[in-house]
Amino acid sequence: MGFRTYTCPISRRCGGCEWLAVPYPIQLRRKQEQMEELFEPVCRHDGCSVSKIAGMDDPRGYRHKAATPYAPGAKGRIRSGFYESGSHRLVYCKSCLVEDRRARPILNDVAIVAQRLRIPAYQEDRGTGVLRHAVVRIGYASGEELLTVVTNGDALPRARRFVTAIRELHPHLTSVVQNVNDRRTNAILGRRNVTLFGPSHMHDSLLGCSFEIGPTSFYQTNPQQTEVLYGLAIRAANAQPGMRVMDAYCGTGTIGICLASEARRQGVRDVRVVGVEQVGNAVECARRNVGANCLADSCEFVRDDATAFMARAQRGGERFDVVVMDPPRAGSTPEFLEGVCRLAPERVVYVSCNPFTQVRDLSILQDGGYRVTSIEPVDMFPHTKHVETVVALSRR
Ligand SMILES: C[S@@+](CC[C@H](N)C(=O)[O-])C[C@H]1O[C@@H](n2cnc3c(N)ncnc32)[C@H](O)[C@@H]1O
């Protein structure tokens, strides 16, 4: 890899890879230094240190999920691409350095096919038109390709012809799903899905476990580094016979299922995982994932708000030996964290995509009787400023 840098013709305008001009080893060094600075009070308090960041051997083509908005262009054309940084102006992208190379051509061809079939693009300022976004997900291990076309309302004119045409151009597509989003919001996806071709979900595998992924469920976008991240979380959880694990903010159950599977592989008996997640579709996937991995006797998944679930677990006098938590960027809630302290598991494993909110949350756990024992940064998004971290805590 050396000290080479990568180039992208639209990097100045797109703003997605703000560190592209910095050689990758230097990006990693910068991230390491940032994490050491950010976690310095935590380390001073608990006498621990930040481990060396886990980088990628080849920091290209790592995004297995790609998306684009569509907008009307001149003479009936449909535009696609990335929003120029800080605006809603679209910059066309022929191929993207950090995406799986199969994804962008599909997104661009959706615009061409829609144009040909006179499916109008969504006009954001007026809330009119049909075609809003498309999202492509490529299975890391499975190679399955799921295309989700987001429409402004139930109608997708000439849907069958659209599907035929896009499949002719991309015969490897395994599913085409229409997602309906008629809200005037920046959120890409709506709640309703209509399967237009193939199965309604795709499959992929991580750490030897197979997962069903729906068009609206959360699934990490860099699967190669996800295996590193989950491996660190599983090691920090340190499964023991008879242990009960809470997998909070569990998405499609990926961490809990990988943990239970690894425990079984190592002959650690009677490990039980209870996952909690608020998105119904993700919980349904998690339950099917349990079956697909033959873990029905060790994993269960509950649809609930994590904080409400924590309060119920305490009222019910439940025992958990380990709490694994992986909240969204905003972090967790004080009530959830205080609930963890009252529940008093031996260990807490906090996986985070935003170390700034994580540091804020850690102080509640430290005040509540926990000591940070390890901090492991993982580079899930090379060429950007983002870092993910796995922090392990033990009860004092
Ligand atoms: C960063 S993702 C992690 C998902 C999963 N652990 C993984 O690695 O794929 C955070 C998850 O938390 C869920 N979530 C957000 N707020 C929640 C809440 N208040 N209660 C339960 N789940 C929540 C989101 O739907 C999302 O699936």
From TrEMBL:
UniProtKB keywords: Methyltransferase, S-adenosyl-L-methionine, Transferase
EC number: 2.1.1.190
Active site: 353 (nucleophile), 353
Binding-site list for S-adenosyl-L-methionine: 220, 249, 277, 326
Recorded superkingdom: Bacteria
Gene Ontology process terms (BP): rRNA base methylation
Pfam families: tRNA_U5-meth_tr
GO molecular function (one): rRNA (uridine-C5-)-methyltransferase activity
CDD domains: AdoMet_MTases (cd02440)
PANTHER family: RNA M5U METHYLTRANSFERASE (PTHR11061), TRNA (URACIL(54)-C(5))-METHYLTRANSFERASE (PTHR11061:SF30)
Family, per entry: Belongs to the class I-like SAM-binding methyltransferase superfamily. RNA M5U methyltransferase family.
Protein's recorded name: 23S rRNA (Uracil(1939)-C(5))-methyltransferase RlmD
Lineage of the species this protein comes from: Bacteria, Bacillati, Actinomycetota, Coriobacteriia, Coriobacteriales
